[in-house]
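Practice problem 4.
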């Protein structure tokens, strides 16, 4: 082997060693971050009377689980309008110490408990098979984003939406996690595909596969691999129960989520914490779990 070639091989081997060493250090650091979070998350023991509903009920609304129907048709009927806290479907916007405020529904994750009187709060949620939830999230993202296609272009749709939201104080879908991330992103994609169809002279799309009408909407297989979906939809229910969404009140949530996404094997720690929290809470009756099919 000529000297130059030997040196090139040596450099490649050196770079491979450095890369492997760097990756190993990253994993060790990430494992430390995730383990430390898991330890601290389980430090506080859940105590209380397992047969008594606490003063405040927090309905942790996991998206696309039938939670809105469950809340309005059952939970809200039990409490009545007089005891419902001001509506907050994204980032707590009310004072939980408000007199007679006993029921709050929000897409906030479990980290909201740091803002609530833990010893006086019960938690309820609805869970669904994760694959079904991903399908539903895709369909809902396309459905809501497509409502803006009545506008001539994306700029018109965006500006009008800003003006309408500025005039109204109510909660919009575009204010709610995770739709505040998914809908504008999907809306931009839908307009881009519509413009591309116009350039091709296509007036409609003929397809028998509702999950792959590529000229009209993003195919499902592309949707599930996009970074924004990986961050908000994949394992979203687990992240909500563990308090680790990108809407979290925990300072360390971003680092833990980043490590879990980079080294998927570390996700076992998050899943275990979520399962332990649910199992512990069910034992004392403080965290009610309902399953949606």
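Answer key:
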């Amino acid at each position: 082997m000529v000297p130059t070639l030997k040196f090139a091989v040596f450099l490649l081997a050196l770079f491979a060693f450095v890369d492997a060493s760097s990756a190993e250090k990253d994993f060790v650091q990430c494992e430390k971050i995730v383990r430390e979070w898991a330890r601290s998350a389980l430090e506080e023991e859940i105590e209380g009377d397992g047969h008594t509903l606490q003063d405040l009920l927090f309905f942790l609304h996991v998206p696309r689980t039938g939670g809105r129907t469950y809340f309005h048709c059952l939970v809200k009927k039990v409490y009545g309008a007089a005891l419902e806290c001001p509506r907050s479907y994204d980032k707590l916007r009310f004072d939980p110490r408000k007199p007679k405020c006993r029921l709050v529904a929000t897409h906030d994750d479990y980290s909201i408990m740091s803002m609530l009187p833990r010893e006086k709060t019960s938690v309820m949620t609805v869970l669904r098979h994760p694959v079904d939830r991903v399908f539903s999230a895709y369909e809902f993202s396309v459905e809501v984003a497509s409502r803006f296609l009545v506008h001539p272009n994306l700029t018109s749709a965006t500006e009008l939406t800003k003006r309408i939201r500025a005039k109204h104080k109510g909660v919009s879908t575009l204010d709610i996690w995770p739709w505040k991330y998914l809908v504008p992103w999907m809306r931009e994609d839908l307009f881009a595909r519509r413009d591309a169809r116009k350039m091709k002279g296509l007036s409609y799309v003929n397809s028998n596969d509702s999950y792959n009408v590529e000229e009209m909407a993003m195919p499902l297989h592309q949707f599930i691999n996009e970074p924004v979906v990986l961050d908000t939809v994949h394992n979203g229910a687990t992240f909500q129960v563990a308090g680790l969404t990108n809407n979290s009140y925990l300072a360390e949530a971003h680092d833990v989520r980043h490590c879990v996404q980079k080294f998927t094997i570390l996700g076992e720690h998050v899943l275990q914490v979520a399962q332990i929290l649910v199992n512990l809470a069910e034992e004392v009756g403080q965290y009610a779990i309902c399953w949606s099919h």
